[in-house]
Each structure stands twice: as C-alpha cells, then as structure tokens.
Amino acid sequence: SPRVSGSCALTYSIVEGGAPGTGNMDVDPQFVDAANGDYHLAAGSPAIDAADPGGGPGDDIDGDARPQGGGYDIGADEVAP
Hints:
Low-confidence stretches: none
Largest sheet: 2 strands, antiparallel
Helix content: under 10%
Number of helices: 0
Order of helices and strands: EE
Strand content: 5-15%
Mean pLDDT: 93
Structural class: little secondary structure
C-alpha cells in the first residue's frame, strides 16, 4: 500500500496531552455520556463557543443550526443555549 507523508496544522481542537496551534486545549471535553456512546457536549463543556471564530459548517451532526450562543463549538455537536 502507498505511504502517505506530510503535515497538518491543528487548530481549535481538544487534544489529550496538548498540541501546538491556535485555540488548542488539553482539557476534558465533558461529553454527556462517552462511556455509553453519547458524545454530545454537556452544559459547561470547554468546547462550547471555543471553535474557530472564522466560521464552520452551517449545521451540526444533528442538523442543528451553527453557531448557537456566542460562537461555534469545537467538534461535530453544537449546544443550544
């Protein structure tokens, strides 16, 4: 199989152990119930309103409009205030 090489710029992400880049955090994202597969953001998650202020997709994984509140949320889920 072919080898892939290169690099990427990681920004506005939550990475265990941290990662260099604008807006990156080393924190618990506080999912609703990750142990049972519910990766929606819980109220109070540090990912809320912490994504790239330049924009993102117009809707989230559930079809909810983005952004909700003060800015875009990091990840596929947008929490309604």
